[in-house]
Amino acid sequence: MMKLRQKPIIIALVTLFVILWFLKGINFRSFNDDNYYQTTPPNILVILADDLGYGDLQLYGHPTSVTPNIDRLGRQGVVFTDFYAASPVCSPSRAALLTGCFPVRNGVWPDVFRPDSIGGLDKQAISIAQVLKTRDYKTGMVGKWHLGVGKEKEYLPGNFGFDTYFGIPYSHDMCPCHKCFTNTECFGQCTPPDLYVPCPLVNGTKIFQQPLIFQTVSEKLTNAAVDFMNNSVASHKPFFLYFASPHTHNPQFGGNLATNATSRLRYGNALYELDREVGLLTDAVKELGIAENTLVVFTSDNGPSLAMRDRGGSAGLLKCGKGTTWEGGVRVPAIFSWKEHWEPRITQRTASTLDIFETIASITGAKHPSTDGFNLIPLLESNVPVRNLTYYYPVTPDKQLGVYAIRYGVYKAHIYTQGNSNSDPLNADPDCRPGQPLYHDPPLLFNLGSDPGERYPLDSNEYKDLLAEFAKLKVSFDSAMGWTPSQVNRGRNHSIQLCCNSGCQPYPSCCRC
């Protein structure tokens, strides 16, 4: 009888041994395995959404969004709950992602570039694409650039290390727009036809289509991205693909499959098309047989444009949105996925778009200049914290005011706050409405662990020592920051806009080919 009772135990132990032996064969690879990284340089796919809010994805709790492909990516990777864009608006945020440096170091301040801006990303800036070229990478950029064009096209991606470029040089709301969905007029803010040229779709430095057709642009962008990956694999070289989707920026648009695709109407339909782009790109990675050697990063450039109401995205439980240094303006969704290299999970560790450059450079072994970012590999592999401090600049940085807010651990101190028109002039929360910078002495202090919505300021008397530490951090950071003269403030020249029909009249509406 004793032997009979022991038999199930023995079977269970044998079964456990077999499972462990099997798992041993598929252990997640470690970044410390230098031989692996030297012999098999990983491909890098960075997907950037536009104005996608913290609360917009199914994965982050939205009840009516339809994002199965992004959700699948999340189930396969590390999902961040506390990930930050380096700026609450587009151009500076993108500059920070590509260079790993605060936008004020790159001249991408204040605010954003326009179609007729003279300046662009500072020519001395070093992008991650330039760094990866030293490691013999194929580098491609597809989608929204928004870091300047210039009189001689000197600020387009090809001048910053990208072998190929196919996309829209700036935000599509900076163009006249008509039909956004099949048989549906655009609904949202569009530029009058006498101000800027119709939106160009650019291939390299040449105009491929003007105006671009909203109903087909997503298909063209994803096809270009998949072609780039195919060509890179065929050439037996690793690739870096930066895919910056114009979704879900207003005015929302989409093709036949996105028209009336969700109950969330225009925004939900545009988000559906963004999700489809993610699915097509990640499916292509799988079909090419390179999933185990491809790091996929997905995030957003800043928080949602609440001024667009139901067409502007959701910050979820966070306060305010795009254009502010409140959490809703800068905390964004983020997923890092690399098959069999780290365990899929949700992490509450803090990270930033500033860290993407440093992480990629570390993974690829590429030598690079110093940055403001951190290598996230210890966090991704073992959930080791790598960033304890996060600094927040506003839309219009001012050297005299310095950073507006600082996060230290779970605590965040607002030295200055300022609403923004992108967070809705009629927002029910007056803190979100546009206005002048408001100085706080003592700073507003929040515990983001217990109060991520920044609704309950902590007692300044109770936290005197911590606030004193924040004061030291601000002085130290502001005094050490090196500012590059503003490229945005170099001015504008209406005549330098991209036009496929040079010299035509009436300009700029005649720029059609």
Q: Report the count of strand segments.
A: 16
Strand content: 15-25%
Q: Order of SSEs, N→C?
A: HHEHEHHHEEEEEEHEHEHEEHHEEEEH
The major pleated sheet works out as: 10 strands, mixed
What is the count of DSSP helices, taking H or I runs of 4+ residues? 12
First CA to last CA: what distance? 89 Å
Radius of gyration: 24 Å
Which spans of ≥5 residues are poorly predicted at pLDDT below 50? Answer: 1-28
Indicate the mean pLDDT.
92
Q: Label the structural class.
A: alpha/beta
- Shape from CA axes? globular
Helix content: 25-40%
Enumerate the strands of the largest sheet in spatial order, edge to edge or round the barrel: 8-7-4-3-9-1-10-11-2-12
Features:
4-stranded antiparallel sheet, globular, 27% helix, alpha/beta, 513 residues, 18% strand, 12 helices
Q: What does this entry look like structurally?
A:
This protein is α/β, with parallel strands linked by helices. Helices cover 27% and strands 18% of the residues. The chain is built from 12 helices and 16 strands. Strands 8-7-4-3-9-1-10-11-2-12 form a 10-stranded mixed sheet, with helices on both faces. A 4-stranded antiparallel sheet has the order 13-14-15-16, covered by helices on one side. Strands 5-6 form a two-stranded antiparallel sheet. A hairpin with a 2-residue loop joins strand 5 and strand 6. Helix 3 packs across helix 8 (265-287), helix 4 packs parallel to helix 10 and helix 7 packs parallel to helix 8. It starts with a helix and ends in a 33-residue tail after the last helix.
